[in-house]
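Running this now, will post back.
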Amino acid sequence: MIIAGGYDKSRKGMIDMEFSTFKKLAFKRRTIRRFTPEPVSTNILKDLVDLGRIAPAGGNSQAVEYIIVNREDMREKLFPLLRWAASLPPDMRTPEEGRRPMAYIIVLLNTEIKKGGDHDVGAAVENILLGATSVGLGACWMGAIDRKKIRTLLNVPKTHDVKHVISIGYPDEESVMEVYDDSFKYWKDDGGRMHVPKRELDGVILKIVD
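Update: finished.
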């Protein structure tokens, strides 16, 4: 019996094709910080959370939980509690009015189930980011946030740690990868395109034992 998601040697050609498609998606995913005013469906946001839900978790503990924010007045209250793009000059960091996120997913950890859990959170967030890219959305995974004020604003229970915010919307900027050259700092060109240095494959493989 073949379990969904398992490797099936008889379908090798299809598996290869699926990997190629996935690789294109992974390379397409970039951090986006400027968005169009087009609304994002709450159903799409729930679908993205569903991808986070099925991500791997240590001990299958499944302690990662979420708050979806898609109402305009709450978006406006949440926006000032986020800090943007520290590598850029101050006047380029924060999205301008009319180009701000149209939805947010707040990532929480239920400490009654598990304490710590950063690996679980990371796996869930990456699933959400890839899912967003697959439906034409842009997203920004944010850790520079005012957790105390977010807890108060959204009435987050004391049993839950506020871990991250994912800002979401339809992209209104372009971001491209550059070959790493002595600096990890991302930068914007005169046309507003973001350039993000990435180390090359041979540089991150320390050793191959085969």
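The chain has a mean pLDDT of 92. More later if anyone needs it.
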